[in-house]
Amino acid sequence: xxxxxxxxxxxxxxxxxxxxxxxxxxxxxxxxxxxxxxxxxxxxxxxxxxxxxxxxxxxxxxxxxxxxxxxxxxxxxxxxxx
Length: 82
Description:
The protein has helices at 3-12, 22-33, 54-60; strands at residues 42-48, 67-70, 75-81. Strands 1-3-2 form a three-stranded antiparallel sheet, with no helix packed on it. It has a domain at 38-82. The chain has three helices and three strands. The protein is α+β, with helices and mostly antiparallel strands. The longest helix is centred in the middle third of the chain and has 12 residues, at 22-33.
């Protein structure tokens, strides 16, 4: 990654930002790809949404902490107890 191009974008963001590089960056991407946040023995559900429905959908789910949103809120990856 060209970090020189990324740094101005990070500086313009609100709050704390961290630029990950090398082995640490690869570990984050591997964990996301492998859905390591889903508890062992749970099902992984891919739920289609619209961006406007994310808040209502999130409020209706149990507080398992096992979910992530992608594609601008159009997909929820949900860890559901088996």
